[in-house]
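Format notes (please read before filing issues)

Several people have asked whether sequences and structure tokens are stored in separate files. They are not. Every record keeps both together, in the order shown below: the sequence lines, then the token lines. Line labels are part of the format and must not be stripped during preprocessing.
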Amino acid sequence: MENGHNLKLWHPYRNNTRDLAGQQLRQYYGLRVDITQSELPSIDWHNSFGRCGRWASFMAHYVQSQTFYYSATRRLSRETRADTIYLRDGDLAVWLVERRPEFQSRMIVELHHLPRRQWRRAGWAASLKNVRLVVALTRAMKNDLMNLGVPEGRIHVAPDAVDWETFDISHSQKEARDELALPQEKKIAAYVGKFHTNGEEKGIPEIIQAAGILQKTQPELDFYFIGGPTSRVARYHEIAVKHGVEKSRLIFRGKQPIQQVPLWLKAADVLLMPHPKTDFYSKHVSPLKMFEYMAAQKPIIASKLPAIEDILEGGKTAYLAKAGDASDLARILSEVFADSQRAAEVSRAAKAKGRGFTWANRAQGILDAYEKIEP
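Then the structure lines:
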């Protein structure tokens, strides 16, 4: 919308959880403008059956997805004013291509993962190779798509980005800690964001193990975990007990309003993003937290993975640890605290590079790529 385009958001009907009930889209995501949105009919059994086991959860997801796809197809068939159809669901894109191939010339499909099973990947590629534009988050994802037969000219790489107006705040560390009622005398290493993606851990077990390794050499260092779901905290405490970590050094604060996240980043001494070495995290992830961390101008410790190295350069804009290696994570944490001058230089370089990753720039790059391709 900031690029001068009208946008309508279509989403499925969902039964909101108690903590989301009554929240508006603009409030939840910290948007500066309202977005026209339409809720399309779908059958949502997640709250009823989603916690009744793996197969019940799968069936709830399947029924909800299929009913939404049917509703979206019907609505698009009646929509005459849409110049471009932007999708962020690969399965919905495949559904539309198979049932209404005339939509292909107007479709942009943004992919946030590829299916794990090869036969499903091949099916996605067969359907997506003729859509107007496919947006991949990483170069590795683009290469995977090309190997599956999607033409290079129809793929545009667009990593995620950050809203600088929200995250580039002027608070000092002391001011941020005062506002959040955090101790000034402590060192704080923070992880901010979801604790897992599609059930896959995002490095918190390794952080806890590193905390155990550093317990004697860094007694003033506390670890804060800002996000959720908090249902996983009991398991994390079990890991802490196993590795002899004092419970008081691990502080879990749950999901915070988007307006407070920049304060948590400013309050920290170092920001952590130690993704494990999986195919998804190695090739297909472009974490929002990475760009938010860069805007905070704090030293970042991330995993040395190809998708991360698309953006961050070890020793220059971040510290990169061996994925899944708690000992290496602990070593680098000690290194950051031992040389504050170098940490400050790395942080400044990260922020300078991060300024190019705005949502407006990202959207314009995608639209430019779309316009260059013949319908």
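For reference, the curators noted about this record: The chain has 17 helices and 14 strands. Residues 54-78 form the longest helix (25 residues).
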